[in-house]
Amino acid sequence: VRNKITINKEIDEKEIIPLRILGFGSTFRIELSYYIENEELVVIKKPNRYDDNIPSLLNRENQFYLRFESRIIPRFYGKIKNQNHLCIEFIQGESLDKIKHKYISFEDKIIILFEIMLAVELFHQNHIILRDLKPNNIMLDQYRRVIFIDFDRIIYSQDLNNHNYYTNDFCSEYHAPEINSNNFSTSCDIYSIGKIIEFIMKEDNPIIRETFESCTNNKPDERPSIIDLIISFYLNFHEHINQKEYLFDELDENKSIKVINKLTSKSKSEMYYEVGLYYENEYIIPDINKLIYYLTLSANLNNSNAQNYLGKIYFEGEYIPRD
Predict the structure, then answer these.
(1) If we measure between CA atoms, which residue out of 271, 260, 266 comes closest to residue 298?
(2) Are strands 9-11 and 16-24 parallel, antiparallel or unpaired?
(3) Are strands 40-47 and 28-35 parallel, antiparallel or unpaired?
(4) Does position 165 have pLDDT exceeding 70, yes or no?
């Protein structure tokens, strides 16, 4: 089990032995190093060019590690004294962009995508918009668990109106069209998930294709929410997802997991019915369209509860809340 505790100390440069460069980004490079005091491998994040924005970007990532702690991100050790470089846990594995040239089963791809969705939900529940979500910012560790890296572009939802937090140098195909504007939201991460689905899934699957198209809609307000996406994905691929039990043990803070826990071991018609009730009861103003949609799917599979409840909605001419 990985230690998730943030250490956050000033580290003497003499404690770090550089080994080799692991990769370059547009602004930073990552060096594999040996941390003498802890007797373990770490990565050092440092700038590869001069830029006035670099101190604020490094500080943003530093503050992120201090505010958010989870199994889905690396452990943060602290900063190198007098340099402001970040010392971060080395994840033994490979970035998601490397899997393009490897064989991975359909089931494993579904599990990877589902864990990415659950992780994004956890970020959003903590008011974090990633903005820079793409395959080379997602690691798969030696157990093929998803670990997110590189947080210098994140923004908190409460800071959306503070333009000091904005950066306007995004140019990846995984970024939503609105990412460089002053008008974006958590929906930009949904767009990135859609593009990651396109990257990973080469199979001609109509459900996957429909999911990709809904996530990459050019109108942000018409993309699904992260919870809508997770629930729909689970309903379509639950047989594959249920093979990886640890998903639910380690991300049990997620709102969607509370819904999914009600669906396990149920028939398809019962699952649709439960999801319909979620959309009725979870919101102050029920989502009637989704309630009716899932009740209809359940009723079409001969679920009598769904059929009776749809009858109340349609034949009495209006939505009537359940007692």
Answers:
(1) 271
(2) unpaired
(3) antiparallel
(4) no
Distance CA 160, CA 48 (A): 28
Name the more confident of 172 and 63.
63
Query: For the segment 167-200, what is each residue's pLDDT rounded down to a tens digit?
Result: 555 568 999 998 877 778 999 999 999 999 999 9
Residue position matching structure tokens 């799917």: 297
Look at the block and give the residue holding tokens 């629930």.
231
| DSSP string of 264-299, one letter each residue | TT--HHHHHHHHHHHHHHSSSS--HHHHHHHHHHHH
- 31: Cβ–Cβ under 8 A, 6 or more apart, which residues? 18, 19, 20, 21, 22, 43, 44, 46
Residue 34: in which H helix or E strand, if any?
A: strand 28-35
pLDDT digits (tens, 9 = 90+) for 241-299: 987 766 656 676 788 988 998 998 899 999 999 999 999 888 767 888 999 999 999 99
CB 146 within 8 A of CB 139: yes
13-18: Cβ within 8 A, 24+ apart: 13/80, 13/81, 13/82, 13/83, 16/42, 16/44, 16/80, 16/87, 18/44
What does the alpha-carbon distance between residue 138 and residue 120 come to, in Å, rounded to a whole number? Answer: 11
Alpha-carbon separation of residue 48 from 23, 26, 51 (angstroms):
11, 8, 9
Largest Cα–Cα separation, the chain: 77
